[in-house]
Structure formats: structure tokens, C-alpha cells
Amino acid sequence: MTRIEMAKKGLITDEVKEVAMEEGISAEELAKNIAEGRAVITRNILRNIKPLGIGKSLRTKINANIGTSRDKTDIEEELEKLHIAVKYGADAVMDLSTGGPLREMRNAIIKHSPVSIGTVPIYEVAVRAKEKYGSLVKMTVEDIFEVIEEHAKDGVDFITVHCGVTMKIVEMLKNNDRVLPIVSRGGSLLADWICYHGKENPLYDYFDRLIEIAKKYDLTLSLGDGLRPGCLMDATDRYQLLELITIGKLKEIAVSEGVQCIIEGPGHLPLNHVETNIKLQKSICKEAPFYVLGPLVTDCAMGYDHIAAAIGGTLAGMYGADFLCYVTPSEHIRLPNKEDVKEGVIASRIAAHAADLAKGYAKAWERDRKMAQARREFDWQSQIELSFDPEKVLSMRSERPPIEDEKVCSMCGEFCAIKVSRRAVEESI
Fold it and tell me: 37, 89, 97, 412: least surrounded by Cβ within 10 Å?
């Protein structure tokens, strides 16, 4: 039985108990949310890793993307990125490789990863079609499902599948009323296939086959947002919403069949659209876990898109998004390097933590309480340990230490507000 099927029967597994204890909720509540499609545990039955819970009443999680491209296929570098992402707090990592030995890359990442691994199988389908047929659009339905099953057999925990890029929506796009028609790689590949063959998206048309594979491995389906807005001008338009309605219906089918689902979301959104987008998703998709890319709140932050995404991610998380996909400083520019991965993970972690504070998540508040107390007591070791990047904090303090009083920092020195105010208050008692 799958997790959903067991939860529907009232069976509380050790896995559910472990996640519930980690999250500080009851196992019964978590099981009920899994049964009703409001939470998932992303772990392929073939993997032995710590289970990851995503969804209602759980801590906001973050994902980091790594992977090769045709321009750079260094597996060792990608494994270093994996190590960095996990070290700085990524809850999951997606392998988005499109260059080099793809299966070797994927298996290396799965082997070395202590966290959930996700993939986008259609990328590999397209690469193989290019090699086999000389054209991406000549991939077949069998090619698509063969690769999806291969990813599941290799132990992938969740896959992005762009089931909502339908023939109807692709035809509507020909009205040319979007600035950027499709910015999703997977979505664009399927739209190209639809136009070339004049047939429906196989992931939509044969959704039952997808369900069959997912059930076999208890694979979580991340229903991709192929029509997500790639700029603010396209935010919350009819294409995005039509796709959301479509994948919301597919999610209901999947859950009824015992398959876990996550819903992917935008994308680029102005700040004043974020709350609306989260509420729409939660309503249309009946509180399914929401996985957002950012969202980026301006199109003009190139080189600093991790900051734009952290701003949007904080708001999204506060309003109910459950899973934040990180964005690195190199977004829209190049394949990220190791430092980009670190910066992206930390920015996303800050966003997720800030969102959890706004949600009233007890463990987030306990961490901030400890930091405040450590500052009151000038406990620098605890401050360093409680920070999101202890190495950086230690390095910065060491580079310019206080001269006279080691308790304070070198910015305020003897005029330290905490020191002065504590002395004034304590001496007046």
C-alpha cells in the first residue's frame, strides 16, 4: 500500500511518527493530512533516507537545484554543490542535468544525498530524442514513460511532470497575448511536441500510466507549472490559472488513487499578487502542498535574483506556501557555481524561517528566542551557532574584532546599546 492508502485505513507508520515528532505535531494529524492530500512524505520506497514531510502544519521546506548542462558536465562539481546545498540547509535537491552522462549523474547524486532527490524526466527524454532521432520533438510516448520509470527505479523521490500544458492552452497561446509565452523548459518541450504532432500532451492524455508508475514506488508527483509567468507582465493571467485548474483536477485523481502530489507555482509575481496566488492555489487544489519558484517580485534583479526570490518566498510562505525552490544569484545568467548554490540556499532558508515565524511555528520562535538571549548575554558562540552561516559570522568577527571589550562588536564598542542599557537598568534597580 502507498502512504495515502495506509493513512486512509488509519495506519500510523513509523515513518509518519518520525516526521510528526520532528515537526512537533501529532502523528494522527499528519496521517489525516496525508490521506486527504494536504501533506506528503517524499521518499521513494527504494531509498533509506530521513523522510521529508511537506505540507499543512509543517515547517516551510526549501529545495536547491543542481545539475549539468551541455556547456559544463563536471559530475564532481555537481556533487560538491550537493554537499554545499545540504550543509547549508536544503531539505531537498533536484537534479536538472541536461548534459553529459545523465543517468550516471543522477545515480551519483542519489547515492551521495542524505535528502530527498527530485528530477524532471522530460529533460532526459528530450536529450535522448535528440541523440536517437536528431530532433527533440520526435520523442515518443513510450520514450517518455520509459524514462519516468527509469528515474523511479533509480530511487528518485519526486518528479516534476508538466501535465497541465494541454493542447487547448497551447492553441490559446497562439493569440500572442503573453510577453513570454513559456519560460518552463519542460513546458516548452511539451508545447513544441504538441504543435509538431497535433496531439494532446502525453502526460495529460495518459495520466493513468503516470499514476501506475508512481504507485509502484510511492513516488511523489510534483505537478509542474509549465505556464508559470516568466515576467511580472504575465502574472496571474488566464494561462497560469487554466493550468492551475487543470492540475488541481489531476491532483484529485492522483490522491484518490493513492498517489501523493505537490502543486508547483510561480514564478514572477509583483508583491501585491502573492497572497492572491497562494489563496487561489489552496482553494483550487484543496490545500495541496504548494511548491513555489521564488516567487521573484521584480524582473530587474539580475545578479541578485536570490534576494528578489527571498522577498517573494517570505510572503508566499507566510500566506501558506509549503516548499520554496531556491533561486541563485546566477538565475537568468548562467549555470550556478558552488558559491551561487550557497547564497541561494541561505537566502531561501532565511525566507522560509521568516515565513515560519509569521505562521507561528513554535520551533522557529524558539530559535529566535535563543538568539535574542545570546545577544543579551554577549554569548558569541551561541550567536554564531544559531546563525544561518556560522563560518561567515566567525570570519567577519575575526577580521575586525573589538579592541577593548571582547563582549561587544567593533561597530559600537564602548557605546554598545545592549551593554549601556543593561548597566543603566540593572544599576537603577
Answer: 412
Question: Does 175 have pLDDT greater than 90?
Answer: yes
- Predicted confidence (pLDDT) per residue in 334-380, tens digit: 999 999 999 999 999 999 999 999 999 999 999 999 999 999 999 99
Distances (CA, A) of 338 to 40, 105, 291, 333: 30, 17, 23, 15
- Other Cβ atoms closer than 10 A to 69: 13
Q: What is the mean pLDDT of the chain?
A: 95
